[in-house]
């Protein structure tokens, strides 16, 4: 087998990533090789003895160098899989992560329990549109107002919505939190806002700190700036008994529940991630259960 064969290049890349101490060296190597050479996993195996031309090998080497320098694979590929879809990334968007799927799953259960055929929800700080698109795909008669401060993020989210086939029900809106939304217009609000305390930004992994947009990370001095704004303004924007669903950072459950309680919203459920960390919270108006006619089971 030639040293420039597909198999040899793949093995060499795996070894280099392992030696560098990357968290997922084999996965990273497979993703980069397959994408660079236009292969799927089966092709990677079936064609391992074939020679790789010099141009392709050079492109792979350049991408490998970027990964070894700390750039996440998703940023190198320009896309990231989340829930049931693949999402284009851009410099203005946070790379969607598995923890946020907990919020999508909780929101989906709350939406199903309502039993409404048509409803409108808002995704605040939509970024790639990952949350909005995932929920729109699950609920074909729903519509979403996707809000973000970054026009670049909204352009990326629009493309992702179109690519997932939900573009006609995805309304992109440039704005600050809920300010531009009409009172009483929403059945639900979902958000994965910035929640990292400003002083903790420098302690983040370099792949996050250097490649995710600061606007989507920095939650202010105590990490709660966005939650203060969302909780204080959510109730007037919701229909009676409407729902507020939020992703939170480590150790923030008590503070966010207190902010919601002060704003007249009642806590209904907390969902933990796979590490047992409280990750998603559900709040609603005091009469929400009466409006729904039933509660949401685990």
UniProtKB/TrEMBL annotation:
One Pfam family of this chain: MTS
Q: Which SUPFAM superfamilies match?
A: S-adenosyl-L-methionine-dependent methyltransferases
Instruction: Indicate whether Cytoplasm appears among the record's keywords.
Output: no
One GO biological-process annotation of the entry reads: methylation
Q: Which GO terms describe its molecular function?
A: nucleic acid binding; peptide chain release factor N(5)-glutamine methyltransferase activity
Q: Where do the Methyltransferase small domain residues begin and end?
A: 121-196
Q: What top-tier enzyme class does this entry carry?
A: transferase
Kindly list the positions annotated as binding S-adenosyl-L-methionine.
125-129, 148, 192
Record domain Release factor glutamine methyltransferase N-terminal: where: 13-78
Enzyme Commission number, as recorded: 2.1.1.297
**Which InterPro entries does UniProt cross-reference here?**
DNA_methylase_N6_adenine_CS (IPR002052), HemK-like (IPR004556), N5-glutamine_MTase (IPR050320), PrmC_N (IPR040758), RF_methyltr_PrmC (IPR019874), SAM-dependent_MTases_sf (IPR029063), Small_mtfrase_dom (IPR007848)
Please give the PROSITE patterns that the UniProt record associates with this protein. Answer: N6_MTASE
Q: Which reaction does it catalyse?
A: L-glutaminyl-[peptide chain release factor] + S-adenosyl-L-methionine = N(5)-methyl-L-glutaminyl-[peptide chain release factor] + S-adenosyl-L-homocysteine + H(+)
The residues the record assigns to binding substrate are 192-195
Q: Which family does it belong to?
A: Belongs to the protein N5-glutamine methyltransferase family. PrmC subfamily.
Q: What does this protein do?
A: Methylates the class 1 translation termination release factors RF1/PrfA and RF2/PrfB on the glutamine residue of the universally conserved GGQ motif.
What protein name does the entry list?
Release factor glutamine methyltransferase
**Native organism taxonomy:** Bacteria, Pseudomonadati, Pseudomonadota, Alphaproteobacteria, Hyphomicrobiales
Task: Provide the gene name from the record.
Answer: prmC
């Amino acid at each position: 087998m030639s040293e420039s064969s597909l198999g040899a290049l793949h093995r060499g890349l795996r070894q280099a990533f392992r030696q560098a101490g990357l968290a997922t060296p084999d996965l990273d190597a497979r993703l980069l090789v397959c994408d660079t050479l236009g292969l799927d996993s089966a092709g990677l195996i079936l064609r391992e003895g074939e020679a790789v031309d010099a141009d392709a090998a050079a492109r792979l080497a350049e991408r490998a160098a970027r990964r070894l320098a700390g750039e996440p694979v998703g940023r190198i590929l320009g896309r990231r899989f989340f829930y049931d879809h693949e999402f284009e990334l851009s410099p203005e968007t946070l790379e969607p992560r598995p923890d946020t799927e907990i919020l999508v799953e909780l929101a989906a259960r709350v939406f199903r329990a309502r039993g409404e055929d048509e409803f409108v929800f808002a995704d605040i700080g939509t970024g790639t549109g990952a949350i909005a698109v995932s929920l729109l795909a699950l609920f074909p008669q729903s519509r979403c107002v996707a809000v973000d401060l970054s026009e670049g993020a909204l352009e990326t989210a629009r493309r992702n919505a179109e690519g997932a086939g939900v573009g006609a029900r995805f309304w992109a809106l440039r704005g600050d939190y809920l300010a531009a939304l009409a009172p009483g217009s929403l059945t639900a609000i979902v958000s994965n806002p910035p929640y990292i305390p400003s002083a903790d930004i420098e302690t983040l992994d370099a792949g996050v700190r250097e490649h995710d947009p600061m606007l989507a990370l920095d939650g202010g001095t105590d990490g709660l700036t966005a939650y203060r704004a969302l909780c204080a303004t959510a109730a007037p924007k919701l229909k009676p008994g409407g729902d507020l669903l939020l992703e939170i950072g480590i150790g923030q459950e008590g503070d966010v529940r207190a902010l919601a309680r002060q704003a007249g919203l009642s806590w209904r459920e907390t969902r933990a991630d796979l590490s047992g960390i409280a990750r998603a919270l559900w709040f609603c108006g005091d009469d929400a259960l009466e409006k729904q006619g039933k509660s949401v089971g685990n």
